[in-house]
């Protein structure tokens, strides 16, 4: 299971603590920030060691990783190239409620893969996600290694509550 493999890697690098704790802002528990996290950001002084909400949350359910208060400026259908961000977002509900990554554009009514949408700012759609609560931006080199370990592309979604 990829979630366990990534978590073990992050613990081995001392990026997060090995024990679950109440360090994330959800009903789940997470893994608190640890000293090795200073190596994966250009702003180690901004790591949230002093905050209660400072950890890694591992999500293994089908989830829409949105930007919170940052919203969605545009969402362009890969088929008709029209912005559907102001339409009803039933296409997101469709994705959440089925076993594949397809949905239907509300304007052209043609099926598309949810990952082919061009959304600004970036959103993510997956059954595997890693939320680093209150962390500063992570170095691109680390994100590239993260993607290699996952063996897939990684969308970095910046959420603001």
Please give a quick description of this structure.
This protein is of the alpha+beta class and 161 residues long.
Question: How would you characterize the overall build of this protein?
Answer:
The protein has 161 residues and is α+β, with helices and mostly antiparallel strands. Helices cover 18% and strands 23% of the residues. A 4-stranded antiparallel sheet has the order 1-2-3-10, with helices on one face. The two termini are 30 Å apart.
What is the element layout, followed by pairings?
Layout: H1 2-12, E1 16-21, E2 30-33, E3 55-59, E4 63-65, E5 74-76, H2 90-96, E6 102-104, E7 111-113, E8 118-120, E9 124-126, E10 129-132, H3 140-150
Antiparallel strand pairs: 1-2, 2-3, 3-10, 4-9, 5-8, 6-7
Q: Can you tag this structure with a few keywords?
A:
two-stranded antiparallel sheet, alpha+beta
The fraction of residues assigned to DSSP E strands is 15-25%
Using DSSP, what is the number of strands? 10
Please give the count of helices.
3
- Could you spell the SSE succession in H and E letters? HEEEEEHEEEEEH
Shape: elongated
**From the helix content, strand content and strand pairing, which structural class follows?**
alpha+beta
Numbering strands along the chain, what is their spatial order in the largest sheet? 1-2-3-10
C-alpha Rg (nearest Å):
17 Å
Helix content: 10-25%
Note the gap between the termini. Answer: 30 Å
């Amino acid at each position: 299971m990829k979630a366990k493999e990534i978590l073990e890697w992050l613990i081995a690098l001392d990026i997060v603590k090995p024990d679950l704790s109440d360090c994330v802002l959800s009903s789940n528990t997470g893994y608190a920030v640890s000293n090795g996290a200073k190596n994966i950001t250009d702003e180690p002084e901004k790591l949230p060691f002093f905050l209660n909400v400072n950890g890694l949350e591992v999500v293994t359910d089908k989830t829409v990783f949105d930007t919170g208060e940052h919203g969605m400026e545009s969402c362009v259908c890969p088929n008709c190239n029209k912005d559907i961000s102001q339409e009803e977002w039933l296409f997101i509900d469709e994705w959440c409620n089925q076993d594949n990554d397809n949905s239907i554009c509300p304007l052209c009514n043609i099926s598309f893969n949810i990952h082919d949408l061009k959304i600004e700012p970036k959103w993510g759609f997956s059954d595997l996600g890693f939320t680093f609560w209150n962390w500063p931006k992570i170095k691109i080199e680390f994100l590239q290694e993260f993607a290699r370990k996952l063996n897939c592309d990684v969308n970095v979604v910046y959420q603001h509550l």
